[in-house]
TrEMBL record:
This is Thymidylate kinase. It comes from Streptomyces alanosinicus. InterPro entries: P-loop_NTPase.
Amino acid sequence: MRILVDGLDLSGKTTLVSALTTEFAARGRPAARHRGMLAAHHPLRPLLKKLPLVKQPDSAFITTAFLTAGYALDALLVKVDPPVRDGTLVIQDGYADRTAAFGMAGGPYLAAVLALRWPRLFAPFDVAVYLHAPAEVRAARLATREKADAVDIRGVQDAAFAETFTAMLIRGMGRRHRALFVFDTSTVSPAQMAEMVADAALGTGPVVLSPVDAGLERAA
């Protein structure tokens, strides 16, 4: 089983990943955080690591490289070469979803447009969780971050960039996942989110949550 946690920087992804790991452990299900490509042995991983990921929103080349040579190929490889084989639940911290969203917010670049047109080219997740938070909340979190990069700062200062990023996740990339949650992390605690996500992951049937005003609405 695979769970994806994604969203704009400073939205609380790392905190939720930690909370999910704790929640699943309490339920007797081992879970491990994972980043990058899903396939255990992706042949192009060393080359992709040489690209400055912090510049991806401003680079059509980097966006294209990660979406095609990276994540599209990864979707094929992971079917025969998964990250774990012992039944451990994988909690993925960021994936192709954010690459496509950044490519639209910073571009739009052709590769990102095509990714949104055909999101099923990329590996799906049993449960995907997209996080967001108001700019003032992310600004407060930015002030406490020791090493903020250009993407962190831009996401706080450029409202149009942040809004486009989140919209592209929800309206485009989220379509391929079995279940989708969207949380405003300024209104829902990590523990509450982790409990809801774990219930959906270990339960039956899809659950889709979307933000409505300051709350959440359950939809079929």
